[in-house]
Task: structure prediction
Amino acid sequence: MLRRITRVSKSQPTIEGAGVHLKRAFGFREVPQLDPFLLLDDFKSDNPAEYLPGFPWHPHRGIETITYVLHGEIEHGDSLGNRGTIGPGDVQWMTAGSGIIHQEMPKQSADGLLWGFQLWANLPASHKMMDPRYREVHSEQIPVVRRNSATIRVICGEVDGVKGPVRDIVIDPEYLDITIAAHAEYRRAVKRGHTVFAYVVDGAGCFDDRRDAYSFEVLGMNYFDFEQRNCLIGPQSLVQFGDGDEVLVTTEEAPVRYLLISGKPIREPVAWYGPIVMNTPEELRQAFEEYRAGTFVKYKGRR
Ligand code: CO
Result:
């Protein structure tokens, strides 16, 4: 059964960290629609003043973050003693677990452009207080699968027997970066019952088999424009789907590039404040109290 679009929304401008201008595809207000995912930020700017302030030292607990850089570089440092820089095509994956303090600082690129995505995956209650960990995956480690007119970078999950390098994320998501040529289509099998969304990076595509039925919500988008474009959905749009076994994307005159991300819902209460996501307000209060008291970080890595 083909998954049908239930909702399309445009990313909204917001300011995070020490003054980074970014676009948020979904976040706090959408809980629990995207369960097990909490947030997706799209940071794309060719004005260094909008990203150089960065995300100086801050804590996280109870989540995992997956950062995917398309252009430019981000320097990272954390309380486990990791230091590194990720660049174009690289992925950084961080499990905050019981607590990590880190910083993420974009560097000025030669042409000024910084572009990438940060996805937050929730941890179930059983794993909220696990030991923190950090991994970097370099662009050349990410396999590319070519199927007819589709090119798929497998970041996490498996396509036609090819496994992505990001493997130990607790909710076991699938994270694919897919490009489809013009006048073509790509069908991707997805698990029934899992939350599935697409985020359009570039170009435009039609994300189910309907061309003239508009029964889904179109939010933050000019409805008239949308209709005129014959159901084609363009960049910085989040596409949510109802249940089913596969996602069909077709293109017309232009190619489309999109992230296709899925995961099994956790279905637990979410208590979320800033960079900390727990199950109860009491756990949140305790986390912030520990941060103030200097006892937040439980595990600093093997020494
Ligand atoms: Co952070």
